[in-house]
Amino acid sequence: MRWSMEHKETWLHQTNPTAKLLLFLPMFVVIVFVHNPNVLMNWAVGFTVLFILFSGYRMKHIFLFLLPFLFIFVSTSSSMILFGKGETTWFRWGLIHITEESFYRGVHLGFRALLFAIFGLMFALTTKPVLLFYSLMQQVKLQPKYAYSFLAAIRLLPIMIEEFQTVHQALKVRRAAKASGFRGKLELVKRYAIPLLSQSIRRAQRIAVAMETKGFTNDRKRTFYYEVKLGKYDVYLFVVICMIVAVGYYMADVFPYVAVKDVR
Predict the structure, then answer these.
(1) TM segments (predicted)?
(2) CA distance linking residue 74 with residue 68, whole number of Å
């Protein structure tokens, strides 16, 4: 079964995963405390362009990745726009009450959610899990037993999905994949859950024994197959983020999209 899409390696893939994480996490906090919708709009444009140009994926794949988050953008902003509070009424019909204040707050909230999605996608699509945990072990000194445990858990996810499909096919052959009524649904859940849980418990036990045998329970200094270091691409990413943030603030002040600069 194929679990990955073809993509090109760009300089974003070459950045240190820990450095990338430490650069992205403060942005989540900053975005929460920015109340100027013009700034968030500029940041959304800038980081979306960065994501599209240097994620290494084709446009159709990028569109598929962004499609659920565009739906979240519409649903989040529309709920605030249609049912928010404000003094300058634009439209009222039954429970729907659109005001100038609620409109700008809704747009602001939608762009905030979109920025969260862009940063999350950019990190997930340009970071290999193996290199992330190797970087955490080397730069942040995360204990190897925890890092390798997370790696093993990530590797188990595709196996669990394949096992679920196997159980589903077996139940279909026996004509036991469907049920009606509450008790029938509960019995159907048991048919899926018991074999999946038993297999997961056995596999987790084998992994724990293997890790203990390999010496992951002590704190001795270990060597690593992959050496993940800081480099010039981390500086590039830092400079690009600072430029987008600074230009976004400047353009919001000089060429604002809307007159409102604070939606609180």
Answers:
(1) 18-34, 40-57, 64-83, 113-136, 235-252
(2) 10
The Cα–Cα gap between 237 and 26 comes to 14
Say what the alpha-carbon torsion angle 219, 221, 222, 226 is, to the nearest 10 degrees.
120
One-letter-per-residue 3-state SS of 159-170: HHHHHHHHHHHH
pTM for this predicted structure: 0.77
Using CA atoms, how far apart are residues 150 and 169, in angstroms rounded to an integer?
A: 29
DSSP 143: -
User: What does pLDDT average to in each consecutive run of 10 residues of the chain (264 residues)?
Assistant: 67 91 93 90 93 88 86 82 72 72 84 91 89 85 79 80 85 76 80 84 81 67 76 93 94 85 75
SS3 98: strand
Rounded distance between C-alpha atoms, residue 107 and residue 115, angstroms: 12
40 φ/ψ angles, rounded to the nearest 5 degrees: -65, -35
260 in helix, strand or coil? coil
- Euclidean distance between CA atoms 122 and 245, whole angstroms: 16
